[in-house]
């Protein structure tokens, strides 16, 4: 990969060292151009090219499917991650007294859709982390005969702990529970092949590791379970022959498209297709290799600078997110110092969260840690005096 030419795809590198891809990422140039081109087309031509937009949306679906190793028929476009999880949570055929298992490291997108099922007699069980890690044995322990679903993040948002998709998925299969995954902190940075992974739903959105637009997401749903589900929201585009407007026939589409209840956000769908196109060109293997190398460098340098690493460093548990704390300097002070130097990081769960993507460089990691080290030596001297 030629990093210099790839960086031209990300004009934000001229202004910033952006290490908040776990928050909202800079868009790739080609994504922004697709969004603008669509908006201009509507401005000047109305619906004249609508057949072309539709073909473009299907191309985006195919690319996203390729990125995760799915069949395009298994993907529905959504508004955001939460929307996808709400669809999964409300389409599972629950019986009164069933339960769902989540963890206490989840972003609330993967919490409230489950808690709100209480009105349908569904209990939400929360497995506690141990020192920032979710143990498969603890999930196993929480499962009983009434467990209908387990819902976790592939990568936990605050400390970047990577859950074991295979082990959790196998456990769900064994126990007859649906496996629902919030993939927003993984897909685009780490590799997955959903066809080989025992999971049922995978929900995420475009604005983090995919380098796409905000307010647009996806839901993967395994074809084999489609007919067991009772879609929560059925609308005019959920049915076959959706364009036969006055022929009211409630025959659901045979694919995950049945979860797309109404009109499409074309600009974002087309933008996402371009954003994913860039990731496919670089290649998921190369992207994962680079993000793990960059986080290796970050971790080594942060340790040398006196920071404590809050993320798991065990093989298979690492991701593109590094969480670091300092015994004498508050994370807010460190983040403010970084922002003054046009370096973007955030505070999560009482620590500095750094989340580089493949197009960042080792040199940038050194520059960021240099600012953090300098801030902490000033802070530590002030504390000592
Ligand atoms: C794990 C996780 N899930 C979901 C979201 C966001 O959800 P949505 O796409 O619905 O805004 C975030 C962060 O914003 C997150 O870190």
Descriptive keywords:
2 domains, single chain, 14% strand, alpha/beta, Aspartate Aminotransferase, domain 1, seven-stranded mixed sheet, binds pyridoxal-5'-phosphate, Aspartate Aminotransferase, domain 2, 13 strands, 385 residues
The proportion of residues forming helix, as a percent range, comes to 25-40%
Sheet having the most strands: 7 strands, mixed
Please provide the count of β strands: 13
How many structural domains are formed by the residues?
Answer: 2
Main CATH class of the largest domain: Alpha Beta
Give a brief description.
With 385 residues, the protein is α/β, with parallel strands linked by helices.
Would you mind describing this structure in some detail?
The termini are far apart. The chain is 38% helix and 14% strand. With 385 residues, it is of the alpha/beta class. It has 2 domains: 3-26 and 284-384, Aspartate Aminotransferase, domain 1 (Alpha-Beta Complex); 29-281, Type I PLP-dependent aspartate aminotransferase-like (Major domain) (Aspartate Aminotransferase, domain 2), CATH 3.40.640.10. The structure holds pyridoxal-5'-phosphate (PLP).
Secondary-structure topology with pairs:
Elements (H helix, E strand, L loop, with lengths): L2 H5 L9 E2 L10 H17 L4 H19 L6 E4 L2 H11 L7 E5 L8 H4 L7 E5 L8 H7 L4 E7 L11 H11 L2 E5 L18 E5 L11 E5 L44 H17 L1 H21 L3 E2 L12 E4 L5 H10 L2 E2 L1 E3 L2 E4 L7 H23 L1
Parallel strand pairs: 1-11, 3-4, 3-5, 5-6, 6-7
Antiparallel strand pairs: 2-8, 7-8, 9-10, 10-13, 12-13
Helix pairs in contact: 2-8, 3-8, 9-11, 10-11
The structure holds pyridoxal-5'-phosphate.
Pyridoxal-5'-phosphate binds next to helix 4.
């Amino acid at each position: 990969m030629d990093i210099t030419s790839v960086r031209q795809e990300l004009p934000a590198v001229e202004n910033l060292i952006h290490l908040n891809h776990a928050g909202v990422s800079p868009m790739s140039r080609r994504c922004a151009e697709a969004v603008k081109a669509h908006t201009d087309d509507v401005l000047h031509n109305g619906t004249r090219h609508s057949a072309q937009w539709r073909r473009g949306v299907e191309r985006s679906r195919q690319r996203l499917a390729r990125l995760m190793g799915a069949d395009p028929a298994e993907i529905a476009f959504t508004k955001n991650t939460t929307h996808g999880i709400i669809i999964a949570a409300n389409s599972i055929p629950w019986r009164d007294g069933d339960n769902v298992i989540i963890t206490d490291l989840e972003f609330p997108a993967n919490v409230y859709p489950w808690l709100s099922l209480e009105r349908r007699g569904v209990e939400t069980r929360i497995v506690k982390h141990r020192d920032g890690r979710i143990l498969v044995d603890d999930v196993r322990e929480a499962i009983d005969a009434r467990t209908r679903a387990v819902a976790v993040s592939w990568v936990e948002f605050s400390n970047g702990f990577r859950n074991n998709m295979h082990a959790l998925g196998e456990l769900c299969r064994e126990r007859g529970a649906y496996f629902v995954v919030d993939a927003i902190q993984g897909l685009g940075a780490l590799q997955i092949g959903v066809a080989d992974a025992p999971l049922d739903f995978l929900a995420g959105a475009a604005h983090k590791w995919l380098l796409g637009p905000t307010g647009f997401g996806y839901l993967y749903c395994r074809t084999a379970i489609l007919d067991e589900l009772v879609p929560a929201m059925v609308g005019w585009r959920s049915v076959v022959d959706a364009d036969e407007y006055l022929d009211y026939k409630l025959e659901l589409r045979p694919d995950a498209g049945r979860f797309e209840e109404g009109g499409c956000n074309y600009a974002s769908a087309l933008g996402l297709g371009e954003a994913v196109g860039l990731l496919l060109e670089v290649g998921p293997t190369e992207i994962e290799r680079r993000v793990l190398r960059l986080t290796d460098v970050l971790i080594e340098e942060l340790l040398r600078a006196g920071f404590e690493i809050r993320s798991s460093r065990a093989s298979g548990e690492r991701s593109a997110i590094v969480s670091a704390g300092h015994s004498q300097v508050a994370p807010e002070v460190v983040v403010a110092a970084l922002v003054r130097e046009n370096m973007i990081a955030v505070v999560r769960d009482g620590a500095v969260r750094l989340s580089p993507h493949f197009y960042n460089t080792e040199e940038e990691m050194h520059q960021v840690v240099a600012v953090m080290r300098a801030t902490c030596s000033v802070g530590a001297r002030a504390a000592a005096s």
